[in-house]
């Protein structure tokens, strides 16, 4: 439908050429179906836990009214002197006429009746009556009740109908003992007796005056309290918040029958205590008042006497009287919910059952009392509620009930239930269906809560409640604050299967917003409800998914929940369903397993028995990144048993870690982040081993550097004819030397060293020695018995051995050597990850036997290598997390590698003729006494290595304080450098190449380097001091973020699909713009092969040399890759819009630019020569944001003399990214899955220089290589061990570097290629011979083909700057334009071009030159 709508907008564009209009229409329709990439929530949402609730729906403190004081001043038969009562007037008290019996009996009957009325609302309270009391009686009553109530609430009910009105001095009246005088009772004293918390009910004339006086006394007490605190020096008003009021007035509530100057109603048809009747018998007084009203009634013939004959009980909702009470509760609760502030509603209607009942009834009292010109008041004050529309619904329900009363009394019919609740549910349903997306909460929400009590409406109410909660977290907060929680908790005890879908959905929504409800589920044993749903094969997949989420929340950091769920076979249930088709269920089953294993050993051993880790391995290759991250999280919690380690535990952990390491090159940052967290737990347990591995690897790198330097010196000395002294021991690692020392020393020394090592080992569970092969001086392998743990004492070489020349001794941390079975695993790599392409970054077991790392389990070495790889991850969060782990291990290695002094050694040294210049003094810290000292600057790994071990900060490295200044060469360590710093484009794969921080003699910092825009998260900095404290346990918010899936709406249509949403209309507008650009550019493309392209519309200087360019197909944006910075230019206005850093290392440069989703909201895809890919959004604004980043390639080719960096080819329609470069394969990435799906072997001995493919369904991939071959592949063919299966053919007519290859669009498109020697060829993909060859006049440095026009341009590679030129040809070989160096005043000063690019639709050519000049040329300048 969207495509059809869009077609109508282009009618004005199709005027001249019908065929062209059809083409435009076809592309427009394709845009609506074109998939959008990197638009999932993980790409535009921060991976963090949801925000906490704005306010807690749980009551901070539950209260109960435990004592009630009933103070009645009636003095039956005597009226107060200050009120003139008419005759007749209201006389009934608690529905009893006091004149119908003796005064004393009437007084007692009224007191007992009032007590029974209160007991209906709070039957367990302690009631005490004080009838016509004195001051002492009131004091004794209040102090006694407060003493028994302690910190609970006490209610004080005062009826002053027979005493004078309250005074302005804050006094109410009681009697003397003989009832001859009225005695004033000060409210100030009453406050002291009652204290707080308390509630007061004032039923007397001028009751509002009591409230005012009470408030004045409360303020007076508060001010006095503050003055005392201020005098004591404990309170300063200027700097401190006000203290709490004194205990007497901290928490009180008041309800008064009328205002300050108002008298109580005296209507003889009403009771004298009308206010009390409203509070204690609301249904009876409501019916009576309704009948007394003479309007708005359907049944006016009901008498007052008939009201007492309404059948039923108030507590039975199936009877007329019970239903009215049920409706009344729902109405008053709903009015309060919609009118009162949330905090006040919680305090008055949810904190105390008696208080809630009284305030519900108070709303009725306000309505009735106002009809008789009395305005009840309260503290805290409430807004007006007497005219709320819901009262009309109440009147209708009363009228419908009374209309049935005559027939019910006659017994001629059965009671028809009121449609009130079904109608309110219908109103709620309409609100859900037709309401706006952003709206207030529905007023019927409390009614839905009441309906849950009815079995007749329960299922419908639960269904509507679930739909309401589906609106988002705000809806869940509203439902919880209204009090839905205890109702849905109680319903979990139900066995009705029809309620399961609604209840599991509701609980998933609740726990997604407030996970603290887990304790409530465990307390009531309700977890069994969800275990039953998860194990039920007949429920829907969505229900089982939500049950898995609920159970995952129950066991999250809750030991009691973990224990009960393990007993409920939760682990087995999760493992059985890991292969389910639903993505979210697989994800939450894995998260559930990870949470139940976390810090719970018994659950881990249950998983071991069920081989849970092996079943989780399949999820590491799941097509969904969230599932892979969840599996990584689960396996990370599975390893790391905190109990005593043994061989079984080590074998399991090593197996799991070996499998986890395969995710190191995952394209999803979620997976890599979880991998770092998982590895931290592993390396923390083996911190000694890992620190030894780290130290030895750095030592090995240092030895390689020294060997390279010595080789260079050797060649120099040979050239001069001097002697060369070769000491085999100097070329060996100190660890190997130490092992040699132990092997050839005396038996006593060896045994002592082994015993010392065994006693000091902290990480090995077994101390029995094993055989390891070490390299002796003469290169002969010897076998010596060494302990599994090596410490400084075991490697020291001291003792009773033979005396030899001084030897360097290195102190090492305790290490865990490989077991016998571990030695055999060297050949298999210990489960090392397969990085693809034939080149692996993991340990080579064959090479390891000659390495000081021989003897360690390969998984330790591989783990450290992966951590170093993640240390230089292109995504900042992953790199910072890995840096924290790496720094921790480096600090441990440095602290363990302390310098030691050794005077003897068990190994002799070779002698040789002295050199003419003599031996350097103190070569390795040699002292004047002849002993050798391992200097702190050169111990173990050298000063550079040790500084790097301890200096890397936790998190990302900050930039250097002095820009353009780098540390000295002695502090360089390849292990701490970023990937691109270790593998520059000018080094071979196995050589270290020039040190990162070395400078040539006389070299200074270039001025341009100081102008670089360097991001603080992409730089490295060496600190002078190691961190002294260990980092805490790393943690991600992935699981908490994943829980947001259940708090969001699952039924709401996305905005970009809603045809009436702003997002859809904006998208439609963009598609109209795209169609207009394509239509307007069509005439230019048609005559592009005949027109000159020489008009320069933009010329400007860039900050750095442009390495690549890219036109946006529909915007006026030209993207310029300037080394590690990205410039955004407006080619139409001729100005730079924005410049920002790509956050890539300083020495690397950008090699590829492309647009993802160019037809919609575009992202910028950036590839750099270090193999990393970054994706940016909002790139044209001042605040570009990194969407994702990953390492597309991790290996380099060794045989290529010229590097091509990273070569990318992006295809929007298929969502595939092809990556190659200085490797022998083409890696295919599926961006929807964010994973590598294929490695296609090129079969070439050189690098890949360019890639191109088509979108026409041929699945043809063309790769140009550095040896001049053009290779065609079909990436649909499987590519595994048989890597040749994807290869289609090889085109071999070129004999030099392929500069550019391009495949024309369409099913019959030709392949265009150009080589550095100046030959451009056209190929038919069906044949191995070219269709046409165009010989150019010069060699090529750059080449560009227009995507839709039959033209191409090249930049010449000339030796003289005056010979530099750019030529534009058509595919017939005709020269269209020549842009050359001109010496005139206004002429072009072009230098060798560094990059060329055509606009995808327009006749525009952008040129980047090596002298930092950016130019844009067009054929015809548009007319203004």
Structure description:
This protein has 45 helices and 40 strands. By secondary structure, the protein is α+β, with helices and mostly antiparallel strands. The strands form eleven sheets. Strands 2-1-3-6-7-8 form a six-stranded mixed beta sheet, with helices on both faces. It has a four-stranded antiparallel beta sheet with strand order 13-40-39-38, with no helix packed on it. A hairpin with a 6-residue loop joins strand 4 (171-175) and strand 5. Helix 8 (274-280) packs across helix 9, helix 16 (420-434) runs parallel beside helix 18 (458-469) and helix 21 packs across helix 24.
Please sum up the structure shown.
By secondary structure, the chain is an alpha+beta fold. The model is unreliable at 1-22, 716-841 and 900-1029 (pLDDT under 50).
Radius of gyration from CA coordinates: 43 Å
Helix segment tally: 45
Mean pLDDT, rounded to whole units?
78
From the N-terminal CA to the C-terminal CA, the straight-line distance is 38 Å
Q: Residue share in helices?
A: 25-40%
- What share of the residues does DSSP label as strand, in percent? 15-25%
Structural class: alpha+beta
Poorly predicted residue ranges: 1-22, 716-841, 900-1029
Q: How many strand units? A: 40
Strand order, biggest sheet? 2-1-3-6-7-8
Tertiary shape: elongated
Q: Biggest β-sheet, characterized?
A: 6 strands, mixed
What is the topology?
Elements: H1 2-8, H2 18-33, H3 41-44, E1 65-72, H4 103-121, E2 126-131, H5 135-149, E3 153-159, E4 171-175, E5 182-186, H6 187-194, E6 198-203, H7 207-232, E7 252-256, H8 274-280, H9 282-292, H10 304-307, H11 320-339, H12 342-349, H13 353-370, E8 377-379, H14 390-403, H15 405-410, H16 420-434, H17 445-451, H18 458-469, H19 473-482, H20 485-491, H21 500-513, H22 518-523, H23 527-535, H24 541-554, H25 559-567, H26 570-576, H27 583-597, H28 601-609, H29 612-616, H30 625-638, H31 647-660, H32 669-685, H33 687-720, H34 734-744, H35 747-760, E9 770-775, E10 781-786, H36 792-795, H37 820-824, H38 845-848, H39 858-871, H40 876-896, E11 901-902, E12 932-933, H41 942-951, H42 979-982, H43 1007-1010, H44 1038-1047, H45 1062-1086, E13 1095-1101, E14 1106-1111, E15 1117-1122, E16 1125-1130, E17 1135-1141, E18 1150-1156, E19 1163-1168, E20 1172-1177, E21 1185-1191, E22 1206-1211, E23 1216-1221, E24 1225-1230, E25 1235-1241, E26 1248-1253, E27 1260-1265, E28 1270-1274, E29 1287-1291, E30 1298-1303, E31 1311-1315, E32 1319-1323, E33 1330-1335, E34 1340-1345, E35 1351-1356, ...
């Amino acid at each position: 439908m969207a495509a059809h709508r869009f077609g109508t907008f282009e009618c004005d564009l199709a005027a001249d050429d019908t065929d062209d209009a059809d083409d435009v229409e076809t592309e427009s329709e394709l845009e609506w179906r074109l998939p959008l990439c990197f638009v999932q929530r993980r790409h535009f949402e921060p991976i963090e836990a949801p925000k906490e609730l704005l306010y807690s729906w749980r009551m901070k403190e539950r209260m109960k009214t435990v004592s009630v004081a009933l103070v009645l001043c009636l003095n039956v038969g005597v009226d107060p002197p200050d009120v003139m009562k008419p005759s007749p007037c209201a006389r009934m008290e608690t529905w009893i006429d006091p004149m119908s019996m003796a005064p004393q009996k009437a007084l007692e009957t009224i007191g007992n009746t009032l007590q029974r009325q209160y007991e209906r609302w709070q039957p367990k309270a302690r009631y005490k009556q004080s009838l016509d009391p004195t001051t002492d009686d009131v004091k004794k009553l209040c102090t006694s009740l407060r003493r028994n109530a302690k910190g609970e609430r006490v209610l004080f009910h005062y009826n002053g109908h027979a005493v004078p009105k309250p005074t302005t001095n804050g006094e109410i009246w009681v009697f003397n003992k003989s009832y001859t005088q009225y005695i004033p009772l000060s409210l100030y004293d009453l406050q002291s007796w009652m204290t707080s918390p308390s509630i007061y009910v004032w039923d007397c004339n001028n009751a509002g005056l009591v409230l005012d006086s009470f408030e004045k006394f409360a303020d007076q007490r508060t001010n006095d309290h503050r003055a005392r605190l201020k005098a004591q020096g404990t309170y300063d008003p200027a700097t401190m918040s006000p203290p709490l009021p004194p205990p007497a007035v901290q928490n009180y509530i008041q309800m008064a029958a009328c205002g300050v100057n108002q008298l109580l109603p005296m209507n003889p048809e009403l009771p004298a205590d009308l206010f009390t009747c409203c509070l204690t018998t609301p249904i009876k007084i409501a019916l009576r008042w309704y009948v007394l009203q003479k309007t708005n009634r359907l049944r006016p013939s009901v008498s007052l006497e008939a009201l007492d004959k309404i059948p039923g009980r108030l507590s039975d909702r199936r009877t007329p009287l019970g239903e009215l009470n049920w409706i009344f509760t729902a109405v008053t609760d709903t009015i309060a919910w919609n009118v009162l502030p949330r905090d006040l509603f919680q305090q008055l209607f949810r904190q105390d059952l008696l208080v809630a009942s009284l305030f519900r009834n108070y709303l009725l009292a306000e309505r009735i009392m106002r009809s008789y010109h009395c305005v009840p008041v309260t503290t805290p004050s409430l807004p007006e509620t007497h005219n709320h529309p819901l009262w009309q619904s109440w009147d209708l329900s009363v009228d419908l009930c009374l209309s049935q009363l005559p027939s019910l009394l006659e017994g001629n019919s059965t009671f028809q239930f009121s449609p009130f609740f079904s109608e309110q549910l219908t109103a709620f349903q309409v609100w859900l269906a037709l309401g706006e997306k952003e709206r207030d909460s529905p007023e019927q929400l409390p009614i839905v809560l009441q309906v849950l009590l009815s079995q007749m409406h329960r299922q419908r109410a639960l269904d509507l409640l679930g739909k309401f909660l589906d609106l988002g977290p705000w809806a869940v907060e509203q439902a919880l604050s209204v009090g839905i929680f205890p109702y849905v908790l109680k319903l979990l005890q139900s066995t009705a299967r029809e309620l399961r879908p609604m209840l599991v959905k509701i609980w998933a929504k609740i726990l997604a917003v407030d996970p603290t409800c887990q304790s409530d589920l465990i307390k009531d044993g309700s977890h069994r409800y969800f275990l039953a749903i998860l194990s039920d094969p007949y429920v829907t997949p969505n229900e089982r998914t939500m049950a898995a989420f609920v159970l995952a929340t129950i066991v999250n950091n809750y030991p009691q929940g973990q224990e009960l769920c393990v007993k409920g076979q939760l682990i087995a249930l999760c493992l059985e369903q890991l292969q389910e088709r639903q993505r979210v269920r697989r994800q939450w089953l894995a998260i559930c397993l990870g949470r139940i294993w976390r810090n719970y050993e018994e659950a881990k051993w249950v998983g071991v028995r069920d081989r849970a880790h092996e079943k989780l391995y399949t999820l590491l290759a799941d097509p969904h990144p969230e599932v892979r991250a969840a599996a990584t999280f689960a396996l990370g919690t599975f390893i790391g048993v905190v109990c005593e380690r043994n061989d079984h535990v080590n074998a399991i952990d090593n197996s799991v870690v070996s499998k986890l390491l395969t995710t190191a090159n995952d394209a999803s940052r979620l997976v890599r982040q979880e991998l770092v967290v998982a590895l931290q737990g592993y390396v923390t347990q083996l911190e000694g081993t890992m620190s030894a591995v780290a130290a030895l690897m750095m030592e090995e790198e240092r030895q390689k550097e020294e060997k390279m330097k010595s080789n260079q010196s050797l060649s120099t000395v040979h050239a001069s004819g001097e002697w060369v002294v070769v000491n085999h021991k100097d070329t060996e690692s100190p660890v190997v030397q130490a092992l040699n020392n132990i092997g050839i020393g005396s038996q006593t020394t060896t045994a002592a060293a082994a015993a010392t090592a065994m006693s000091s080992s902290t990480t090995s569970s077994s101390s029995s020695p094993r055989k390891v092969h070490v390299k002796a001086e003469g290169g002969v392998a010897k076998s010596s018995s060494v302990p599994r743990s090596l410490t400084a004492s075991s490697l020291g070489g001291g003792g009773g051995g033979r005396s030899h020349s001084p030897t360097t001794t290195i102190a090492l941390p305790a290490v865990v050597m490989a077991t016998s079975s571990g030695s055999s695993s060297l050949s298999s790599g210990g489960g090392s990850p397969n990085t693809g392409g034939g080149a692996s970054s993991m340990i080579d077991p064959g090479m390891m036997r000659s390495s000081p790392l021989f003897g360690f389990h390969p998984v330790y070495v591989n783990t450290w290598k992966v951590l170093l790889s993640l240390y230089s991850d292109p995504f900042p969060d992953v790199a910072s997390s890995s840096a924290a782990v790496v720094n921790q291990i480096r600090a441990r290695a440095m602290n363990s590698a302390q310098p030691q002094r050794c005077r003897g050694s068990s190994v002799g040294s070779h002698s040789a003729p002295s050199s003419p210049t003599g031996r350097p003094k103190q070569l390795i810290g040699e002292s004047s006494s002849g002993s050798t000292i391992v200097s702190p600057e050169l111990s173990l790994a050298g000063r550079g290595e040790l500084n790097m071990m301890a200096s890397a900060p936790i998190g990302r490295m900050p930039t250097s304080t002095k820009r353009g200044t780098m540390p000295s060469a002695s502090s360089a360590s390849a292990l701490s450098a970023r990937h691109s710093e270790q593998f520059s484009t000018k080094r071979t794969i196995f050589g270290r190449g020039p040190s990162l921080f070395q400078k040539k003699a006389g070299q200074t910092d270039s001025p341009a380097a100081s102008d670089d825009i360097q991001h603080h998260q992409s730089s490295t900095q060496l600190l002078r001091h190691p961190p002294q404290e260990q980092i805490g346990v790393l943690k991600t918010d992935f699981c908490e973020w994943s829980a947001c899936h259940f708090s969001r709406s699952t039924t709401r249509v996305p905005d970009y699909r809603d045809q009436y949403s702003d997002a859809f209309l904006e998208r439609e507008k963009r598609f109209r713009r795209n169609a207009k650009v394509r239509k307007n550019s069509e005439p230019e493309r048609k005559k592009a092969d005949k027109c000159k392209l020489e008009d320069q519309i933009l010329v400007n200087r860039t900050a750095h040399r442009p390495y690549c360019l890219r036109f946006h197909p529909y915007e006026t944006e030209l993207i310029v890759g300037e080394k590690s910075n990205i410039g955004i230019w407006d080619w139409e206005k001729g100005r730079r819009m924005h410049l920002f850093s790509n956050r890539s290392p300083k020495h690397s440069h950008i090699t590829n630019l492309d647009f993802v989703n160019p037809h919609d909201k575009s992202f910028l895809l950036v590839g750099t020569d270090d193999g990393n890919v970054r994706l940016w959004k909002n790139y044209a604004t001042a605040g570009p944001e990194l969407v994702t980043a990953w390492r597309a390639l991790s290996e380099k080719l060794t045989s290529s003399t010229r590097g091509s960096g990273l070569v990318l080819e992006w295809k929007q329609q298929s969502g595939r990214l092809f990556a190659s470069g200085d490797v022998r394969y083409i890696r295919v990435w599926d961006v929807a899955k964010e994973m590598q799906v294929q490695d296609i072997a090129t079969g070439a001995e050189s690098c890949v220089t360019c890639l191109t493919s088509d979108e026409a369904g041929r699945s043809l991939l063309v790769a140009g290589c550095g040896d001049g071959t053009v290779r065609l592949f079909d990436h649909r063919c499987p590519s595994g061990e048989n890597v040749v299966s994807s290869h289609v053919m090889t085109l071999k007519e070129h004999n030099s570097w392929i500069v550019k290859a391009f495949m024309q669009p369409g099913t019959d498109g030709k392949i265009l290629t150009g080589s550095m020697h100046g030959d451009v060829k056209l190929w038919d993909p069906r044949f191995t011979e070219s269709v046409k060859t165009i010989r150019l006049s010069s060699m090529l440095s750059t080449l560009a083909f227009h995507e839709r026009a039959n033209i191409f341009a090249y930049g010449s590679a000339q030796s003289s700057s005056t010979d530099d030129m750019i030529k534009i040809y058509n595919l017939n070989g005709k020269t269209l334009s020549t842009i050359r160096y001109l010496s005139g005043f206004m002429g072009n000063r072009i230098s060798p071009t560094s990059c060329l690019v055509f606009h995808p639709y327009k006749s525009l050519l952008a040129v980047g030159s090596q002298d930092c000049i950016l130019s844009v040329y067009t054929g015809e300048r548009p007319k203004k």
